[in-house]
Design a protein that fits this description.
Layout: H1 2-176, H2 219-230, H3 235-246, H4 252-259, H5 263-276, E1 279-282, E2 285-288
Antiparallel strand pairs: 1-2
């Protein structure tokens, strides 16, 4: 029992010794770790301080450089502003000089142009007066020539009338003889003058107590009229006739514009409608009959 207790006591002391040893080792390790950490903290703090110092130095240098660059830039801007101001002053002066020169040149050109225009107008007026004088002379000459032609034509006409009276008297004597001349006779005389000369003279006489009668329409004319009435209207004729019925008289140009027809087509249709008796014409206007 005592031996077992001693053995247990020895084992306990041994375990305590081992535990103490482990505790010392652990404390030593903790001390080493703490020292290493402190050394690292010191080194880190030193590095951080050095970095901060370097950064502050770089910031100071950069700020100084920026201030220097800004000062240089401001001086350049001031120099450029002075150059621009000087250039503007020179440009204003040059503009004034150019304006004066141009105004003088424009005044000289305007005066030269005015003189040229006045000279041209005077020459034109002189030429116009000469042309007017020539034209008046030519008109007087033409008028005198026309007067001479009219006088000659009148003389020729009087001669022709005298010859016609003689011919009429001779014809009357040859037809009726000397025993009685008709009291009243229908005479129609037509003259056609071209180039101031008489052309054709036609004389028609009717016996006393008799009047000329109009010829009765022949069978052929009646047949043509009936055929025209039986023939249906063309499209253009029907359109024009309907349009005239709806209006109060129209001219040819108004019919063309209203119905979009050609002049020849419109005239042909109006003539056909007049022949049929469907359209009448009064003073250049056409009306539906």
């Amino acid at each position: 029992m005592t031996a077992l207790k001693e053995q247990w006591q020895q084992a306990r002391e041994q375990r305590q010794a081992e535990l103490q040893q482990r505790r010392e080792q652990l404390m030593q390790q903790l001390a080493d770790i703490t020292q290493q950490r402190q050394e690292r903290e010191i080194a880190t703090a030193t590095d951080l301080q050095n970095f901060v110092a370097d950064l502050q130095s770089e910031v100071s240098q950069t700020r100084f450089q920026n201030q220097k660059d800004l000062a240089d830039l401001q001086s350049e801007v001031l120099a450029m502003a002075a150059d621009v101001q000087a250039s503007l002053i020179e440009i204003r002066q040059d503009r004034q000089v150019w304006s004066t020169t141009l105004m003088d040149q424009l005044s000289a050109d305007a005066e030269a142009l005015r003189q040229t225009v006045n000279q041209f107008l005077s020459e034109t007026a002189h030429i116009r007066r000469e042309q007017a004088a020539d034209l008046h002379a030519q008109l007087r000459s033409n008028r005198q020539a026309q007067v001479d032609d009219v006088a000659a034509f009148r003389q020729s006409l009087q001669t022709s009338l005298a010859a016609l009276k003689v011919f009429r008297q001779q014809l009357s004597e040859s037809v009726w003889g000397l025993m009685g001349t008709p009291v009243a006779s229908a005479t129609s005389t037509s003259y056609t003058a071209v180039s101031a000369k008489p052309q054709t003279v036609s004389v028609t006489k009717a016996p006393q107590g008799k009047t000329p009668r109009e010829k009765a329409p022949t069978e052929k004319a009646k047949a043509e009229a009936l055929a025209a009435l039986k023939t249906p209207l063309t499209k253009a004729e029907q359109t024009i006739f309907d349009h005239l019925q709806e209006s109060d008289g129209l001219k040819v140009i108004e019919i063309e514009q209203a119905l979009l027809l050609q002049r020849l087509q419109t005239i042909d249709a109006l003539r056909a409608l007049q022949q049929r008796g469907l359209v009448i014409q009064k003073e250049r206007r056409y009306y539906a009959a």
